[in-house]
Amino acid sequence: MKSAVTISLVAEARGGPFVFWDGLEAGCAHAAALGFDAVEIFPPGPEALDPVAIRALLDRHGLGLAAVGTGAGWVKHKLRLTDPDPAVRQRAREFAGGVVAVAGALGAPAIIGSMQGRCDPGTSRGQVLGWLGEALQELAARAAVHGQALLFEPLNRYESDVFCRQLEAAQFLRDLAAPNLRVLCDLFHMNIEEKSLADTLRAVGDRVGHVHWADTNRHAVGFGHLEPAPVIAALREIGYTGYLSAEVLPLPDSVAAARQSLESFRQWTGRP
Ligand code: LER
Ligand code: MN
After folding, report:
1. Residue 6 — very low, low, confident or very high, per pLDDT cuts 50/70/90?
2. 165 C-alpha to center of ligand 2: Å?
3. CATH number, domain containing residue 229
4. pLDDT one-digit tens code per residue, 249-258
5. 18 occurs within a structural domain
6. Does any domain span residue 68?
7. For residues 15 and 124, what is the distance between their CA atoms, to the nearest angstrom?
8. For residues 138 and 178, what is the distance between their CA atoms, to the nearest angstrom?
9. Is residue 106 part of a domain?
């Protein structure tokens, strides 16, 4: 398994669970100095990411790119893949598709989290899942062009009611028959929704595509009451070799949260 740390470039998301906030240059410099393998970027949109410049920046710091988030589509532009308005759904697909393309050009997967939306009153769950399924199939096909996965992230009940539990999401993705669709398992959301984190990870199995390495209170792992040992054992059992990416509150400050995230990663994976 490999370590990663989040960098948000979205001013509107300030206060959210991202570690670094002061630009890509500064975030990459901190991540590399601390010893992370990679960064995960939350951009305001696809146009904010120049693949050539980002490749040069990552290479200069010896960092990988773990994933790129699409959440600004919702946070900044109020775009949802399941909006009842077809014009909004279309714009949402274009926005997410742009992020998938730029992430793919950089050799990374994109994440569909808050852009999944929620079931509005007056809209049936069947309709919402239909719209979501169509969008994920289209976006997965765009990711496949680059040989990348598309990561779907179940969110806890206070953020969405589309898929809050990992296994239900994994079954939905399996039925879509797009083999590069994977589940992003965020340990913070899982702590709220799952009976057992380890059993759930084992059940999702080879559909686990990415992990958000967060404690129960969304602080860095070790600052809450998560028991990492069974989580790591389950990930080993299913043969997971992807990222444990620190998507946590920048508390007590960004560098301290990053340092604790990496220390806990090293402690529990045994990686130097
Ligand atoms: C939101 O709670 C979250 O976990 C993010 O990774 C989704 O964009
Ligand atoms: Mn997350």
Report:
1. very high
2. 13
3. 3.20.20.150
4. 999 999 999 9
5. no
6. yes
7. 32
8. 9
9. yes
Q: Answer yes or no: is pLDDT of 177 > 90.
A: no
**How deeply is 5 buried, as exposed, middle or buried, from its count of CB atoms within 10 A (0-12, 13-18, 19+)?**
buried
Measuring CA to CA, how many Å separate 133 from each of 152, 206, 263?
11, 20, 38
Amino acid at 86: P
Q: How many domains does the chain have?
A: 1
Residue 272 has pLDDT above 90, yes or no: no
Share of the chain above pLDDT 90, in %: 99
Mean pLDDT (whole number) for 226-244: 98
On whether the CB atoms of residues 173 and 135 are closer than 8 A, the answer is: no
Q: What is the pLDDT of residues 195-225, one digit of tens each?
A: 999 999 999 999 999 999 999 999 999 999 9
- As a whole number of angstroms, the distance between CA 243 and CA 227 comes to 18
Which among 186, 189, 217 is the best mutation to test ligand 1's pocket, defined by most ligand atoms within 8 Å of the CB?
Answer: 186
With a Cβ cut-off of 6 Å, ligand 1 is lined by 69, 71, 113-114, 153, 155, 159, 186, 212, 247
Omega within 30 of 0 (cis) for the link into 252: yes
Domain that includes residue 100, residue range? 44-240
> Residue range 110-125: average pLDDT?
96
What value does the mean pLDDT of the chain take?
A: 98
Starting from the CA of residue 186, give the closest ligand: 2
Q: Whose CA is nearest to atom 5 of ligand 1?
A: 113
Separation of alpha carbons 7 and 116, rounded Å: 21
**266 within some domain:** no
The rounded Å distance from CA 69 to ligand 2 centre is 9
156 CA from centroid of ligand 1 (Å): 9
Q: Which of 167, 206, 184 is nearest to 70 (CA)?
A: 184
